[in-house]
Amino acid sequence: MTSKPPQREPSLAGQTVVLIGGSAGIGLETARQARSEGAEVILTGRNPDRLEAAAAEIGALRTAAFDANDTQALQQFFEAIPAPIDHVLITAGGPRYGPLLEMDIADVRDALSGHAVLVLEVARSARSKMRPGGSLLSMGGTGGRRIDHRLGVVSAATATLPPFTAALALELAPIRINLIAAGFVDTPLSASLLGDQLDERRKELQTILPIRRVVTAGDVAALAVHLMVNTALTGATYDIDGGQQFV
Length: 247
Known about the structure:
The chain is of the alpha/beta class and 247 residues long. It has helices spanning 25-36, 48-58, 71-80, 105-126, 154-172, 188-194, 198-208, 217-229; strands at 16-20, 40-45, 62-65, 85-90, 130-141, 176-182, 185-186, 215-216, 237-240.
């Protein structure tokens, strides 16, 4: 008679995860995986209908529809959360492409600092509600590390995030902060950006990437959950692009 192996305890049991931009893509998939590991999840997003559908699908604890770049709305959201928070993932926002000389000065300022400012505002608003050892996760990219006239200001904006994350980790301690740097991820956002070229891009990456497949939202979500669970990790940048930056 063989004995059954002991069941593994859910790694996020009793914890609360907040997804800023959690109604679709990487945010929603991270919410799914966090729920499967026993966490309660709180979703935010700009589209109320999509947010409601996502919350119903995964059984979210609560939701809030607002623009994450609205500082007052962001502060009010965290003030309204009654229970302690353990982890926050920020997927809201995205890079701005285009020739530098054709960009409005205000857009350049926002492109260079917008994501770092959002992360800082979340850190300030969430800090008093977070348990020691909890984590703040933000999203960056690997594609912007190369200089290309098609990328414009993206390369400069990308370069600011790793040292910003490391510096903020010292100030937030014992709350942890890490940066996830992704390449192409097969999400609705990628579909909206590439349009008719999506299938062609998928086929190209399946051929040239060392992993011989595209990176999915599930891959990134698995990394995010690991960074929540492993309490030795802070101030670092974690690449997840299937080797895209090397080819």
